[in-house]
Amino acid sequence: MKDLLEYLARNIVDDPDAVEVTEEEDDRGVILTLRVAPDDMGKVIGRGGRMARAIRAVVRAAAADQDMATKVEIVE
Prior knowledge:
Blueprint: H1 2-12, E1 20-26, E2 29-35, H2 41-45, H3 50-65, E3 70-75
Parallel strand pairs: 2-3
Antiparallel strand pairs: 1-2
């Protein structure tokens, strides 16, 4: 899932080298944390949060195929 999130984010932003994805596991599943350059936050979140919801939906759907629970957090 980490690779999928990184791929999606790198293709959205202007500075793909600044994309960083970390992965943590807890008792409820996997938490993926996405960090991008400050100038690219608007692109990743999108108007009204549409892009962020779409990214989360794609990752969640891919994780469901592997019987995993995932959560995507977008931080500065």
